[in-house]
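Reposting from the mailing list since nobody answered there.

I have sequence plus structure tokens for a pair of proteins and want to know whether others read the tokens the same way I do. The first protein:
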Amino acid sequence: MTSLRERRRRQTACDIQRAALRLCLAHGSAAVTAEAIAAEAGISTRTFFNYYLNKQAAILGPQIRLDADAAAWFVTSRAPLLDDVVTLMAGMIDEAEVQRDLLCQVKRLIEVEPALQPLFKASLDAATQTLLMLLVRRLGTEHQPQAELIAALAAQALSLAVRVWAANETMGRPCISAMMRSQIEQTCARLTPQNCAAEV
């Protein structure tokens, strides 16, 4: 269970990100400084740097992390791999308490400033690498190529599911894992030998 102190820390991190996005949308990211973000968030510059290394990190927001217990469970589990991948990735989103309004603001900012796209792609790449590392530990190094494909597919499915969820206020957070699973299953079905032969 998350402690009150940790919940407050997460809230402050989100408040800083919200201030950063608000300023960037209003003035453009090039004109925004860490000092301005701190002032907008109602905190000191020193406090800002206790949460984020720079303004780019603040725009990106709290990083999605995987705790040691979840990693250990995934590596040793003998449940169906797809079930565990979906549970793990959706759990990372739940643990980060991803905010719908912040994701919508991020989307708007990227639309206005496409040059920021690599910043957010780097975050997805980091999640992919985390999953890849765990898949290799679970499946063995001899299955590295397959692990790379699974990690890339799962990360892209998660990204798509989160974007759909963010754009639809009627959807609950559990829909993220359901959509993620559906995307993976549909993609795998399309890539069966029979379907590939039929499309040639």
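The second protein, same order (residues first, tokens after):
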Amino acid sequence: MAHEPRLLFPELLVDHLQDLVLKTEGVKDMLDELAGFSAVTLADPAIAFCSITLIQRKKPVTVASSEERAVRLDETQYSSGDGPCLSAIHQQAVVHVPDLTNDHRWPAFTAAAREAGVGSSLSVPLILEGEAEAGLNLYSTRSHGFTGEDISMVETYSYHASKALRLAVRISQLAEANTNLMAAMESRTTIDLATGAIMAQNRCSQETAVKILKIASSTRNVKLRDIAASVVASVCHDPSVRTHFDA
């Protein structure tokens, strides 16, 4: 008997996916939560489990899963270079395998799936931006474990999940850019402070002070910022001195 549909109403689904983005600390945590949520939402959790595949620079990797069996089945596809998950991503289309005992398109995957007690699978692409590609993979321990209604729900679900994943990636990129900016500002502040100290000590111009720092950096094979930090610390007589932008 087919399981009862578990998909939330669209507005509740969107709210929950947005909460995943906002309440998890990073993209990896968000993906783990998404895999678990997908397994419960899209299929009967007693018979199905889920994973998420990400392809970057042509290299696929399972970045999240609700169960270890999903990871092993994904890796079988990566090793052989083909399977329903990779096909869904490359073709940008849903790939449904209703009965793995009668499917001969991917021999290595089919053999591994049967050994793992999997009877059917459902893979759907997640639409990302840029060079990365992703896919959501559902595995059922039953043959014909996914109904036509399930497939329709997965297509709707993947649209909203893709938007949530893109938002999570964008937030992560902005956070990384902000961290890099703060590091650059901190480095610039340290160098400026060291330059001022050298100018005062040697009664020289700013250009000469910068040259002194660069020569010291090159001679000692030490980063310019680290040389500058040592100068500031020596002037302050405090090796733990912190710049304004230090956390």
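Reply #1 (J.P.):
I read it the same way you do. The chain has two domains: 10-175, 177-236.
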